[in-house]
Amino acid sequence: MTKLICLPYAGAGAGVYRPWRTMSTGRLKAVPIQLPGREEEYGAPFYATIADAAKDVAERLRAAVGDEPFAIFGHSFGSILAYEATQYLVEHGGPLPEHIVVSGSVSPRHRERRPVSADDDEQAVADLKAMVGQDIESLNHPELRALLLPVLRADVQLLNDYEPARRAPLPVPLTAVRGDADGMVPVPKWRDWSAFTSAAFRELEMSGGHMYLADDWALVWKTLEELL
């Protein structure tokens, strides 16, 4: 059995992958990794830098997989965490994943700053919806908005401050996935993920926009199970 380490998108915690936990089989088991500042770790300090995040995610991953085979899936913000955590593992003695799947993200060198208002909540919501290119239902509810905006702001700022180091490509097979209507992830900048692995590279488009996976969790899980 392969453990699929699942890293959440900006503003989200490990709980977003709850559907996949119920779909796990003897071949592939979803193992979501929690990030500080959300869900059961609400109140814990957010990561200060992507380097801090990579180290912490790698350590949490090590504890979760033990000596079992594993792959990594990250969506959007989680894709950058997946890439950087794997680079950390390469540089600090492993273990290495059998495969890394980066979803809903351009390659690290094509990241662009996307400002989100730090002091005007209404403007921040508008900024985030414009960024994603679709409505974000949870931000329409005042109680949820109050919980989610600090996390979203922290995650977006982390990406805005991110400057990928020049390093050798990962010695790990990598698959890049995008929704075919995702305006945040232009095809040329998405395909550039091919430069970040020295092993096998695949690209895969799914039907939908930036949050294509939330449209049909079961279909995406089946696709990943076949891929891995």
Can you describe this structure?
The chain has 228 residues and is α/β, with parallel strands linked by helices. It has one domain: Rossmann fold. It contains eight helices and six strands, in the order E-H-E-H-E-H-E-H-H-E-H-E-H-H. Strands 2-1-3-4-5-6 form a six-stranded parallel β-sheet. Helix 2 crosses helix 3. The chain is globular and about 45 Å long.
Features:
alpha/beta; 228 residues
Q: What's the helix and strand layout?
A:
Layout: E1 2-7, H1 18-23, E2 28-32, H2 50-65, E3 70-75, H3 77-91, E4 100-103, H4 121-132, H5 142-160, E5 174-179, H6 187-191, E6 201-206, H7 212-215, H8 217-227
Parallel strand pairs: 1-2, 1-3, 3-4, 4-5, 5-6
CATH class: Alpha Beta
Could you tell me the strand content as a percent range? 5-15%
Overall domain count: 1
User: What's the story with the biggest beta sheet?
Assistant: 6 strands, parallel
Radius of gyration: 16 Å
Class inferred from helices and paired strands: alpha/beta
Any low-confidence stretches, pLDDT <50, length ≥5? none
Total helical segments: 8
Please state the second-level CATH architecture. 3-Layer(aba) Sandwich
Mean pLDDT: 92
The secondary-structure element order is EHEHEHEHHEHEHH
Helix content: 25-40%
Q: Which geometry do the CA atoms define?
A: globular
Q: Would you identify the CATH H-level superfamily?
A: Alpha/Beta hydrolase fold, catalytic domain
Brief rundown of the structure:
By secondary structure, the chain is an alpha/beta fold. The chain has one domain (2-111, 166-227): 3-Layer(aba) Sandwich (Rossmann fold).
